[in-house]
Design brief:
495 residues; Aldehyde Dehydrogenase, Chain A, domain 1; Aldehyde Dehydrogenase, Chain A, domain 2; seven-stranded mixed sheet; six-stranded mixed sheet
């Protein structure tokens, strides 16, 4: 079915036919053990449009048991055969891209064109790790003529994946694919706000030839399904994307059974603009960095660190552009979509209201709003808060919305110090025409990834992760495979 037909179906019926409603366990959709369901909401209309299984410990146990059984064969399947399944899944995802994009936009609220990009990125992720599956290899050790020593990279076993609500399909694909390529089995728990595309992806991979039990998805709340999953004694590794506070609890739970952990947590990422920068490129980069997905991105460029001589003109240009952004329901392809939930809208609005009460200058936006066509939804205007001190909450704390905080500096040294002046260290952006300065600053900035003259540069090939309270471990790139393998060393005397 075409994109236009799917969009028309939703706006005429209030839902889409054939949406998944059960857990995906051992190759099939199944109801929750307790028979309970949860509603999922359309953020652009602030209304429920579907219900899905509310899982608990019993459902988690079923899924982990299925994954343990499947691990015995999937872990010994040749890499080229694992890769072939992932490659078929990539082709199938491209063939079904329209439905995945519409469901992703509807469930998360993001603009349809952004969801379409996410689907293509997920397919590329599957292709990338399909090519890596038969290239995981060990090493040999120089022990002299009387010994042979070598290592084997083995799959760690059953892995748990906690998927956030802001990029449900992208985040699922970027952790499922390397785990499956390495020979691990998967039990995933998507966010209760956005469960649908993770379930659809599990079904798609099964249809592409993934054996039953290799990939399982249990839906439900974090407390009733996510907590039991990361604490399950048969889980050997946990990949988590989410808040710092929840990440700490995940790490504590995993420690009880000595499971390894990758944590991709919050961010308060700076975009540094020096006076010699290409201002046209900087404006476009900053707008995308903070207003894509309504700012609901861990790596959003939520702080503008700008050299004083260009501060006024740059903020003026940004404010005019921000005020002109077209707001609307995600399926209508707006430039700025809604926030994901009423509770999150309250959080974002609370930060801006408090900043206004402290006397800070709101140069653009700063208010709640609604979809101009539908008259509802959880929307917040694209906002700029100007000339903020380094210790202010809107600089130090992750707002996770379309709110840009501006910090003014006088030189390169101060720019780096201000950029490093939070507890986060996920990414950073630098705009300057001076090649040497760009790389000096990149060297000194405390972040897992640095973009120069283009924010969000790179792709699945580039390792992604943070430092400080932004977490540890790396997803994407060949580096991600290391999280899902363990080294076994073998030494033999032959002399």
């Amino acid at each position: 079915m075409s994109t236009d037909s799917l969009v028309s179906e939703y706006f005429s019926t209030g839902t889409l036919a054939g949406l998944p409603s059960g857990h995906f366990i051992d190759g099939a959709f199944v109801t929750a053990s307790g028979g309970r369901t949860i509603e999922t909401f359309d953020p652009g209309a602030a209304r429920a449009f579907h219900a899905f299984a509310a899982g608990d410990c019993a459902d988690v146990d079923r899924a982990v048991a299925a994954a343990r059984t499947a691990q015995k064969t999937w872990g010994r399947t040749r890499g080229n055969l694992r890769g072939a399944v992932l490659m078929r899944a990539a082709a199938l995802l491209r063939a079904e891209a329209q439905r995945f994009a519409v469901v992703e936009s509807l469930d998360s609220g993001k603009a349809l064109q952004e969801a379409e990009g996410d689907v293509q990125g997920a397919a590329r992720c599957l292709e990338y790790y399909a090519g890596a599956a038969d290239k995981i290899e060990g090493s040999s050790f120089p022990l002299g003529t009387d010994y042979v020593g070598f290592s084997v990279d083995e799959p760690v076993g059953v892995t748990a994946h906690i998927i956030p609500w802001n990029y449900p399909l992208s985040t699922a694909a970027r952790s499922f694919a390397p785990a499956l390529a390495a020979g691990c089995t998967v039990v995933a728990k998507p966010a209760e706000q956005t469960p649908l595309t993770a379930l659809m992806l599990a079904d798609l991979l099964f249809r592409a030839g993934l054996p039953a039990g290799v990939l399982n998805v249990v839906t439900g709340t974090g407390a009733e399904a996510g907590g039991p999953l990361v604490a399950h004694p048969d889980i050997r590794h946990v990949t988590f994307t989410g808040s710092v506070q929840t990440g700490v609890r995940v790490m504590q739970a995993a420690a009880a059974h000595v499971a390894s952990v990758v944590l991709e947590l919050g961010g308060k990422s700076p975009v540094i603009v020096m006076a010699d920068a290409d201002m046209d490129a900087a404006v476009e980069g900053i707008l995308g960095a903070i207003y894509e997905n309504a700012g609901q991105i861990c790596s959003a460029g939520s702080r503008l660190v700008v050299e004083r001589s260009v501060h006024a003109q740059l903020v003026d240009r940004l404010a005019r552009r921000a005020g002109a952004l077209r707001i609307g329901h995600g399926l209508r392809r707006p430039q700025l979509g809604p926030l994901n939930s009423a509770a999150h809208l309250d959080k974002v609005a609370g930060y801006v209201d408090a900043a206004r009460q402290r006397g800070l200058t709101i140069s653009a936006g700063g208010e709640r709003t609604v979809d101009p066509d539908g008259g509802a939804g959880w929307f917040f205007q694209p906002t700029i808060i100007d000339t903020v001190s380094a210790d202010d909450p809107v600089v130090q704390e992750e707002i996770f919305g379309p709110v840009l905080s501006v910090q003014v500096v006088d030189d390169e040294e101060e720019a780096v110090a201000i950029a490093n002046g939070t507890n986060f260290g996920l990414v950073a952006g630098i705009y300057t025409r001076d090649f040497g300065r760009a790389h000096r600053m990149a060297r000194e900035i405390e972040a897992g990834q640095v973009y120069i003259n283009e924010y969000f540069a790179g792709g699945i090939e580039v390792p992604f992760g943070g430092s400080k309270q932004s977490g540890f471990g790396r997803e994407k790139g060949l580096q991600a495979l290391k999280s899902y393998t363990r080294i076994k060393s073998v030494t033999a005397r032959i002399g």
